[in-house]
User: What shape does this take?
Amino acid sequence: MSIEHPTQSNSIVDVLETVLDKGVVVAGDIKVGLADVELLTIKIRLIIASVDKAKEIGMDWWETDPYLSSKAAEQSTEALEKENKELRQRLEHLETKMHNHTYAEKG
Amino acid sequence: MAELLYLYGVAPAGKNNEAFSDLMGIDGEHPLFTIGFEDCMAVVCRLDESDYGEEIIEKKTKELDWIQEKAFHHHETLLKLRERTNIVPMKLFTIYQSQNRLSDVVQAHREDWNELLTEIAGKEEWNLKIYCDPNRLRGNIEKNHPDVLKKREDIAGMSQGMQYLQKKKLDGWIDQVVEEEQLTFSKQMHDTWNGWADRFMEKKIWKKDVTGKTEEMSWNGAYLISSENVETFLELVTEANDRHRESGWKIEVTGPWPAYHFVTLAKSEV
Assistant: This one.
């Protein structure tokens, strides 16, 4: 028996029809004018469907493109910082070596 | 900065104010807390008016991602609350200007809410949807329905011109039988389930562009069931699914939900 709590994209209908549709228990002070459930669900579902579909056919390049994804941007900055640090260390190492070498020649 | 109160639901009194402080509110910043009244308590979180004032919400509701996120937060929070307390769930975006305003509303409805709390105590809301693959259903009827077989036999004995006309007529008739069969099947299923439920509410049947499914929805209902009957109820659903899958039926059951569909105050709305 599969008993699911609807949290997946495919049950967006279940959630919206329930938390938005009819049967207001009591009205709040703030009036919220939402489009009707039907329209809203169709729109939201279309967005989800298009993202899922895009992923399915491998069109998820934006997730790794720093111009479009802050996560990707963070990752690439981190990588650059790391590379930078490594290069500095190597440079330092070389400089020390060179210095010692020169010193040894003179001495 | 002015503060608003977001009301998730009303629960029986008896928990301390911090009982749900491990749950984060709808703005992701303020935790939940409770405000106690004589015999019930309001489960709320604070909101900054600068982020959740009427005008701002009005603007925000045009952002689909935002609505979706908030709707799921509301829903998931009430699922968690429901595991810990009996609760009359509110709809999305039930917001009050001040604690005084909220108190007024709670005081005005206290009796109704206590009645509702008693009514839904020890019960669970389950939602059932029946989906149907109309092609499979149609194929079945074409192949097996005795009236169809009989009519087809009659047609075979007719002149060609007549055959054409009668075949068209038969097609239309089969469409009708398919539709009737959907109603009959749903009604039959519902009657069985309803026998185990304390209350029932019929919900809207959504079209395919809403559900995003290839099957057609032919039934949508919410059932309030005593906890001790839930197991039997779910067994009935599983059994029906197994028995009718081949003929193109699929029953989808979700729950337990907060008793959203059984807490409407018919008498008074503020």
In short: The CA atoms of residues 20 and 49 of chain A lie 21 Å apart.
